[in-house]
Amino acid sequence: MTTNFAPLTVAIGDLVPHPANVRSNSPETYDLENIAHLKASIAVLGLLQPLIVQKLDGKYAVLAGGRRHAALKELVADKAAKGFTAKTKIDCRLVPDDCDVTTALSLAENITQAPMNAIDEFEAFARMMEVDGQTPETIAKTFGTTVATVKGRLRYGLIHPDIRAAARGKTITLDTMKAFAEHPSQEVQREVFEALTKDGGYLQAYTVRQALKSRGVKVSDDIGAFVRADYEARGGAVAADLLEEHSVLEDAALVETILLEKLGAAAEEARMRLGFAWADARVRYDYATMADYGRVYPGPIEPDETAQKRIDEINAELEQLQLEMEDEGLEDGAYNALYERVDALEDEARDLQEAYSAEDLARSGVISSWSAGKVTLHVGLVRPEDTVKEEGARGSSASPTGEDAPDAGEITYSASLAEDLKTERAMALGAAMALHPEATLDLTLFKLVSDVLASGMSVTQAIKIDARTEYRSHAKMDEIDETSLEQVAAAHDALDLSWLDDTRAPADQFAAFRALEAGEKAKLVAYATASTTQSCFARDRQRDSLMHDFEIEIMPDIRAHWTPNAALFNRFKKAWLLKILGEDLGLAQEAVTLASSSKKEIVAFCDKLFAEPFATLTDAQRAVVAAWCPPMMQTAGVAFDEAEPAAETPEPDNEVAQAA
């Protein structure tokens, strides 16, 4: 026998929960966040499905539709909602008093009101847009969700029906089905689907995305945006998506043709501006293929009167900018603008003081390529057939000065930075000597005896035995890492200075000094000798074998006394920082990700990385970060000519660096 539910209208204020509703024991079901979308839908569309109610104690108890009831009460309480008050009547169906299927009715409706299948939901959203003419914004308002969520569902609802059917039948996963949305053309989706499934293999989302990449370029991709205007002007086919950013330029060959033309034009413009002999273009700069190319570099020139005047103006402005950048209250935007201005001025000054020789210009050229979303120029390249080859060596180009050309990715240091790094290294060495008193005592005594008794040159000029504290200047002394300073201060606090009493006569002080234990004397001598260490870089074994070996013994790892921080990274060019991250530290992905960031953001990243290596690093990466320092500061590093600090040279010409 069928139970008939009589229709009636009931004021929202006369509705109460029914104790037999199966969701009454799950109050979280009615939390505001769980019914927000339902509230939004009723506000726009009204109550589409009547509530099932039963008369209890003079009220109408909601047997089925508890969440709709909760949403209605929220609308009544919401003063911004129009047309909903406690007296507003809504459609209901009345369950007879003698009906004995109350619990069964409630359970049945709640089961039928279970969440929709994901694919059903995708298709429903797509129909609302295609058939009803709604927009992502109106759909989002109707369902109380975000526009971004609606856009995502719309994409999946328009995938080819055969592919959606395969997902329903569990032949492919939902994620694999979603991957086909990378291309808006259902015909292309079907072709790729059939090609990938013809052998009955397991289909993966990654495989689908890779296959679709060969079928066109998205208009939102960097290359798509770069060539789109020319592409459409030439009549290139566009697979339009309901959402513009997912439309695809279908003719990949035409996209590449236009890209190469634009790259070639950029290379030719650079060739004419710089005076090179030839220009070429590559979609991708293949470093393996380009390994046989040589490279020339600009050499120093004497600026004329006009150029020198401009250089002086640049230096004055750089000093002013440096002062402005030290303002701690500077906003990020203003700070980054100052950085960009500094880089531009440094480049201009370098161009006024460097130039390619006529001979090098006559045989070298420029290649442009697409890298990190922009045109990248690789200048000064020499084709293999034009390189000057040494006997038994690969073709390579020499610098205009006749000296060996630096590696293209080599980091160079200005004279002021080199001097400051020498100071930091001397401070670290002093800390190591203070922490190794016995060894330092032996060194000091050996030098004293050898200098007096041995004939010829002093065994080392690295320490001053007159025990005058070496003055150490540094442009950023208040910003550098303080590890070595703290270690030296701790060593000072541990000294026995009871003998050092100015009220005593020198002879009495000396007697007290002689009475100290040998270990205490060693600490005093070590501390005093450490204070005399001179600023330097890694020592050349041939020039000073004594200190070379001594440093390796007491300071095998400078990082035990010194850590790179923002004070150092701020003085590196952005391209250097990216090269250090990508090549030296093995964090290539991080370098690529940071390439589009400001230098300030990259400095902050490096500062945090070295202060406390991230938990996400591999053991190998963690070890490299823990050991890294500028090469010339390494105790056992390569020989470094202290007399000639490195001059500024062009920034590294690798892909990560150019992305900066």
UniProtKB/TrEMBL annotation:
Q: Where is the ParB-like N-terminal domain?
A: 8-111
- Spell out the Gene3D superfamilies in the cross-references: 1.10.10.2830, 3.90.1530.30
What GO CC annotations are associated with the protein? chromosome
Cite the SUPFAM superfamilies for this sequence. Answer: KorB DNA-binding domain-like, ParB/Sulfiredoxin
Which InterPro entries has this protein been placed in?
Answer: Chromosome_partition/occlusion, HTH_ParB/Spo0J, ParB/Sulfiredoxin_sf, ParB_N
Which residue ranges run through the membrane? none
Listed SMART domains? ParB
**Which spans of this chain does the record mark as coiled coil?**
304-362
| Alphabetically ordered keywords of this record | Coiled coil
Instruction: Please name the GO terms of the biological process aspect recorded for this protein, alphabetically.
Output: chromosome segregation
Q: Segment Disordered: which positions?
A: 386-409
* Protein's name in the database: ParB-like N-terminal domain-containing protein
Its source organism is Primorskyibacter flagellatus
Q: What is the lineage of its organism?
A: Bacteria, Pseudomonadati, Pseudomonadota, Alphaproteobacteria, Rhodobacterales
